[in-house]
Amino acid sequence: MSAPTLNHQATGYDARQAYCMAEAAELAYQTPERIEATAAGWGFDRVRHHHSTFSPPFALSDTQAYTMASPTMVVTAFRGTEPAQLRDWLSDTSTPPWPGPARTGLVHHGFAEALRAVFPSVLAAVEELRDDEQTVWFTGHSLGGALAMPAAAWLHFEDPWLSAHGVYTFGQPRTCDRVLAEAYDEALGDRTFRVVNNNDVVAQVPPEPVFHHVRALRYIDSSGRVRESMPVVSGLLDRGRGMTSDPLAPASDGMRDHLVKAYVAALEKNLP
Known about the structure:
19% strand, two-stranded antiparallel sheet, Rossmann fold, eight-stranded mixed sheet, hydrolase, alpha/beta
């Protein structure tokens, strides 16, 4: 993995930053040793690992992430999960959502509990490693994206002095209700970019109207071009294709588009 240099001063959507953040999200799936070696090659000389287990109603689960720091940036990347486990999380409808940060709106119970298990460790690492006014960033793929966005929300609404400078998520499922989504858009909408690859079905669940996305979409179309919105017709066709099989089955087109490697490859093609 040889990501281009991350830009701590990036504002708005930046194609190079999106690619770098996708590679950082992909790195979260690797071993601690691989994470540390790769981060060092990217110029991040300090790394903290986060791992916590918890027991939601449906199965014993764990949350994994890492935080890396350079003289200019602190980046936390959350790891995703296997499709079968994600299916269990998204099908749990018996447990009510959690209150959002600062009692703002609601967060999907499974995602909130997964974040709660590891967030104290993440917050401690960010506070420790941000020792020279470095910018703060969050990223994640799949479940990792569903943790990166509320992590940024909790940080902003409850520790605003550490508010994130940028958030990039890839294949993120819907995470919160409309109240929190709108509050998040107002506070962090210009710093957050939710990237969706063509027919990625994970970005279409859990269903509306209970759960919502934040609005800052970047859509990778079928030709691999990054667009600022998903065309209505294309979106309907994608959803139709996703319904032809189990949306979280590894063999489906929607699941292939969800793979983190597919995001990295597409965003690399969009580099300037």
